[in-house]
Design brief:
Blueprint (H helix, E strand, L loop, with lengths): L3 E4 L3 H12 L4 E5 L6 H6 L7 E2 L3 H5 L8 H9 L2 H10 L4 E3 L4 E4 L5 H13 L3 E4 L2 E6 L2 E6 L2 E5 L3 E4 L23 E7 L3 E2 L13 E2 L3 E4 L2 E3 L3 E4 L2 E3 L1 H5 L1 H5 L5 E3 L6 H8 L8 H9 L3 H11 L7 H5 L1 E2 L13 E6 L16 E3 L13 H21 L1
Parallel strand pairs: 1-2, 1-10, 2-6, 10-21
Antiparallel strand pairs: 3-5, 4-5, 7-8, 8-9, 11-20, 12-17, 13-16, 14-15, 14-18, 16-17, 18-19
Helix pairs in contact: 1-6, 1-13, 4-13
Bound molecules: flavin-adenine dinucleotide.
The site of flavin-adenine dinucleotide (FAD) has 38 residues, from helix 1, strand 2, helix 2, strand 7 and helix 13.
Length: about 375
């Protein structure tokens, strides 16, 4: 019999398995997919941003105002410094980008995952793929496996089954049916928004929009975004997507480094025979994408474009479908858990990672939150089991 079963082999589950293995427990990790860490590997495709190097207070502020004790404890014990030390301990040199974002030098996730699995194997952790958890039968965990149904009754269980986006990588949110009274509804987080573009935008599809500021609900994002066929997406939009999901209007400052008066003075320069886009290019150094956005959302133009340029209201048709979101809000509520991440009405069952009801922007906060809660759940489960 195995002491501990970890369900879900993403960063949260693997970190919990590491803690349990290190504590000397026999551990089985079960995952529904044919291989482990699929979303983690996908995250590495565009550069695996594992954490953010910044002072702890600023770091924690990204997880929302009223932080549950368990989440704060997890992030205090396993914050950016610990994530960096952990990655380096696995032989993955990391670098800190100009904005404080931390990446492995190789950018990808695969070398890190390989080294991590080797470490887990050293602790005797057994990994079972194509094992889908189907809830409990009495006290026993029930798995559908390639060799039929398997029941397991470990001393402790860690649920780390992820959120409810990118279902093809494993996190399909189906597990919520096994915890019917403990789960807050899933919502998209860090997602793009649908825009029904006019034909005029077609030449600009795929264009990155840089050097602008997106503003919603009192938040400002200086990140880049993309004009895509389906709407607007990318880090700059994700940063304000929570406020937008909660109903805040999005406006774009197309010239954020210039005060209003400077924009106004530039616009008053004689235009001569220039087209508007040439004039904006000359006096404001606008890119074609910036002019296209102004045209798309600003028409019919008022006589003075200054206010529009400083706060262009964006009309959209709501968030893209949840399955496309980088992460999800909702999941197991903290009031259903002890401060040790154990489900109150299921002694010995702990939860970790994106399946918990917290959200954070992209920028390394998600993986750090998963590693931190995985570490806390693993350590607490080990203490419970011994
Ligand atoms: C495109 C993309 C890029 C990203 N880039 C970054 C980034 O750079 N930095 C960052 O911080 N975050 C990033 N993220 C987010 C990050 O990858 C996730 O937040 C993180 O992987 C969540 O970890 P987790 O362990 O909680 O869940 P997951 O990684 O989703 O793992 C959950 C596991 O549980 C398994 N599972 C689910 N249900 C069952 C079941 N019933 N039985 C058995 N197994 C089950 C799944 O197969 C899966 O393997 C990115 C996400 C995406 C989609």
């Amino acid at each position: 019999m195995t002491d501990a079963v970890v369900i879900g082999a993403g960063p949260a589950g693997l970190m919990a398995a590491e803690m349990l293995g290190k504590a000397g427990l026999s551990v089985t990790v079960a995952d529904a997919m044919p291989s482990v860490g699929r979303k983690f590997l996908m995250a590495g495709k565009s550069g695996l941003n594992i954490t953010k190097a910044e002072p702890q207070a600023a770091f924690l502020a990204n997880y929302g105002g009223d932080m549950p004790v368990a989440l704060k404890t997890a992030l205090d014990q396993f914050g950016p410094d610990q994530v960096i030390a952990w990655a380096e301990g696995l032989g993955q040199h990391v670098f800190i980008g100009s904005t404080g974002r931390v990446f492995p030098s190789v950018m990808k996730a695969s070398p890190l995952l390989r080294a991590w699995l080797a470490r887990l194997s050293g602790f005797g952790v057994r990994i079972e793929t194509r094992w889908r958890w189907h809830g409990w039968q009495g006290d026993a965990l029930v798995f559908e496996t390639p060799s039929g149904l398997q029941n397991m009754t470990p001393k402790v269980t860690i649920l780390a089954t992820g959120g409810a986006s990118w279902a093809r990588l494993g996190a399909d949110g189906q597990w919520a049916a096994h915890l019917p009274n403990d789960v807050a509804q899933f919502e998209p987080a860090n997602m793009g928004f649908i825009v029904n573009w006019s034909d005029h935008i077609k030449p600009h599809l795929g264009a990155p929009v840089k050097s602008v500021a997106l503003m919603a609900g009192g938040q400002t994002s200086r990140g880049e975004f993309i004009i895509s066929e389906r709407g607007i997406e990318g880090g700059g939009v994700y940063m304000v997507s929570r406020a937008m999901r909660l109903g805040a209007k999005l406006t774009i400052d197309l010239k954020p480094d210039w005060p209003l008066e400077k924009v106004s003075a530039a616009l008053r320069k004689p235009r001569g025979k220039s087209t508007l886009s040439n004039h904006l290019r000359k006096v404001l150094k606008f890119t074609p994408a910036q002019t296209a956005l102004l045209s798309e959302f600003g028409r019919p133009f008022p006589d003075d474009l200054t206010s529009l340029i400083k706060a262009l209201p964006v009309t959209h048709q709501g968030p893209r479908p949840i399955d496309e979101a980088i992460s999800t809000a909702g999941g197991v509520r903290f009031d259903a858990l002890t401060d040790n991440l154990m489900i109150t009405h299921k002694p010995g069952v702990f939860c970790a990672g994106e399946m918990l009801d917290w959200e954070a922007p992209t920028g390394g906060y998600l993986i750090t939150g998963c590693l931190a809660t995985g570490a806390l759940a693993g350590m607490q489960a080990a203490a419970f089991a011994t």
